Excisionase (Mesobacillus subterraneus), 241 residues
Amino acid sequence: PQHTLQLSGSHDFLVEQLVKYIVSEGTGLSITPSYIGSLEGLMMLYRGSADLAAVHLLDPASQQYNLPFIRQLFVHEPITVMRLASRDQGLIVAKGNPKNIREVKDLARNDVTIVNRQKGAGTRFLLDSFLAKENLEPSALKGYENEEWTHLGAAAHISRGTADAAFGIRCAASQLGLDFIPLTKEQFDLVFRWTPQNKASMEHLIDLIQLTNFKDSISGLDGYDAAEFGKIIYGNDRLGA
């Protein structure tokens, strides 16, 4: 039987599609996702309790995504990093943007309440780096301590009117018919950690991503750019390859 792949890391619609695709196409692969945020996902991979991780982590010093963290953690372990997509990140606000929120510093206004993502989420890192650029303290934002674990969970607060803004991806805003103010494009990658046990399954998974029509499922996702989809952007020696 195939090794069941454990996927940890960021919650993302593309990753959800991938998990569904693997099941529905009868690929014989088995994959169990746990959406615990980019940082925690990478740490699980580092500790050997996951086979692959989905990450989007901005390194503020280099303004690079993912690789600075990955290079630091995985010195000896055989890994491969694959670019999945770049995603539009920005502010999710109510339809018609009634509070006229335009940029991050508007989140500190008295009449604005936000909903945040959990500690360790790549989206929260991104919000924090924007706050630092504006010299804003998190305590200046009403609702900063209100945490949600997924993009849709955060966006749902805007729909219900329990918050005025959330930092998140365009796709979540589109799915709930909300407005979106784009602020940046971020890189979303998959990190594979090779072991003798998972090698066959991981090679199978990489083939599925690169060689099948799975890529077509991205075209239905708003705010994703798949120009570099499936491209290997970093690797140290693959196990026995």
